[in-house]
Hints:
By secondary structure, chain A is an alpha/beta fold. Chain A is built from eleven helices and twelve strands.
Amino acid sequence: MIAARSPEAMNRLHSLEIDQLTVSYANGHVALRDASFRLSGGSICALVGVNGSGKSTLFKSIMGLLHPAAGFVRVSGRPVREALRENLIAYVPQSEEVDWSFPVSVWDVVLMGRYGHMNFLRIPRAQDRRIAEESLARVSMLEFRDRQIGELSGGQRKRVFLARALAQEGRVILLDEPFTGVDVKTESAIIALLRELRDEGHVMLVSTHNLGSVPEFCDQAVLINQTVLAAGPTVEVFTEENLNRAFGGVLRHFRFDESTVQKHDGRAVTLLTDDERPLVFGKGGHLEYSQRKGHESVVRQREEREDSEP
Amino acid sequence: MSALLEPFRYGFMVDAMLAGMAVGAVCAVLSCFLVLKGWSLMGDAVSHAVLPGIVLAYILALPLALGAFVSGLSCAILTGYIRANSRVKEDTVMGVVFTGLFALGLVMFTKIRSDLHLDHILFGNILGLAPGDLRDTLLIAGATLLIILTLRRDLLLFCFDPAHARTIGLRSGRLYYLLLSLLAVTIVVSLQAVGIILVIAMLVTPGCVGYLLTDRFGRMLWIAAATATICSFLGVYLSFFLNASTGASIVLLQAAVFLLALTFAPKHGLLAVKRRRLATADGLMKDFPTAPVRGSGTPATFR
Amino acid sequence: MIDTLLIPLRYEYMLKAILVSGAIGGVCAFLSCFITLKGWSLMGDALSHSVVPGVAIAYYIGWPYAAGAFLTGLLAAAGMGFVKAKTRLREDAVIGVVFTAFFALGLFLISRFPAEVDLNAIIFGNILGISNADIVQMLLISAFTLVVLGLKWRDLLLFCFDRTQARALGLNTTFLHFLLLTLLSATAVAALQTVGAVLVVAMFVTPGATAYLLTDRFGRMIALAVAMGVGTSVTGAYASYFFDGSTGGCIVTLQSALFVLAWLFAPKHGMIAARARRRAAGVMEAVA
């Protein structure tokens, strides 16, 4: 647990508030219109939408890199600029955005998270070193502290940038596609860490493509496509209708009631996925098809086999 | 022996060595940031763009260095502005803007009668430093170096991850202009030594040498600075005997060091990479003495 | 008044200069459409600086200057390609290192072995003093470039737009890559006489960029770029009579002025049009 925060700072309820936010670019393109939602800690919120739906625009606005044409962003009740000065916002970038051959070590990167707490010359004090060490230890990367960042595996790289966010002691953490290029073990370790942070009162906004894992670890969800389509508890937001609205025709449907998995019996189940066509195997380990039409012979064979082996 | 020491007997040679080394060091330290930020050709643009400023300052009887600084900086700012407000790619905008400014400077230069030497602006005139010039060069170069080194951590973070710099409350806009201003100042102070075309080399090559030789930024700074100061010293020294352009000698020496680093760098050099590839291939051969040939052998499980 | 304006046209050297500049300006503009789309703007800059040692060497060994210049230009391009492929250095850094080294070599040679090489003519061009033999050389290079572009422009367009797709279609992308580099070097050599090494890059970039702001069709883009290239080169060469022979400066200043006009006022991609669109979006906001 990272200490050194005054108790009232720890207990103060942190929040992220987006109110009627409109952002347009210099070429006249409006990337986000009238977006509103509110999160308060501790919470893990999924930010879900197709490419170009305004996810990164929203992130940039929260980080103060873009100035809204209308509306505002408030972090724990403060305008963005003030929140940045207080180091309330931390950001874990997408792997593609990082130059991995940059001549810095793991330790350098995590210390960069402390810059906001250091003096003007950025000379680390004992406390900065201690917090950086604790953060690295928390993601089990302490033994790699002297590695150049390019010498790490995909999962390790992610953990270094998580450690940087921890070292920064930000209360609102933005994570951009944290699970791409990460092995399953690291993914569950990251999720476990995010849960711990939620219990400590952090607000996390996670942009992800991984629809399936959202209900598993996100208590809140925001669906966007140029504007906020739905926001709230994941169970309420993640409805088939909302997701279809957010993804238009992009989502792949796998309707079990039309598939070879089950004959039509009224127990309709739909599998939604935004990534690739799901590969579905039946009970016996055989492939299933999304349409029974054209695969009648498969269904017939199976029926015959079931009949012969009672 | 005394022949080898002869250059040191001339005051102008010693001055040239000192000025060359000071300028080399500043350019080298800055080049580390430029190479990492992907701004190598920003030096190209800014240095060409100083010409109209020099001519204009001459007409208005202002210090030439001031004019050079302002027009170099405005080239970079204009490039950024047009880039943000049009659909043209950044490198293209840069090409359009700096050539436009250079051409404008050229037309103005030919239209006014002046005692400016275009040759000196283009190729430097380090052997002809006026009495106060050395002092000015050393002072400005020293001050610039001090600022860069003091703020090196912020500048490095800005190059590495501007979004994070923003989230810890650093004003990345301010750092952007700071780095640009440092670049413009460095170019202006280097003009006398190497001129506007070869300063580009001084702003790229040492950083590349450092980047090839190490994975740590601190070491990269040292390597770049050492490379540049030694090359400046030797370049001035050798040009005395070769009777060749001083700026060109300095830059050729830097290019030679770059070639050496490119070939022999312990980890990222051509030979090291080749050796590593051979070693991997060897290792594979040992692990699989009889490498399976695709398509041969019987499938085990599929029927 | 009219008399003064007609003075330049009375001199044969001015007429030659105007015609040759126009030809080179047109060819460069044609090529510039590919260069700007491919993102090779600074490659043009690098190549035009890299030809300098070639000019010097050609003088020493008695070759036509164009041959030497062309060879070192290609050598520099090959060097950049090699270093880029073999190291982790960024492309822009590699370009910077290589072309400045070549340029320094040229400068070193010229200062070490002074011959009748006029450095200023290389750096700034000297179209007003062009010899008939050079005119023939330049026209040959221009004709060659135009023929190749005319025959291969579709392949080159696809190569610039989507290299992978070009390869998938069975086009030889390595060949196209070197073809474009060769054309670039050859044209740079020809343009050297008109505008000089420093400003060649403007001829390779500005007309294409200006046309790109004005249209969304590639065919129209080429037509516009070539028209602007020829127009500015002819006018610039003519105007340089009144500007002490700084032909390159005049041509490129004109080209830049056209770019600024297009950037501000282009019907769809101009800044003012974008502003208006943005404001319209804001108004819709207020209504909605």
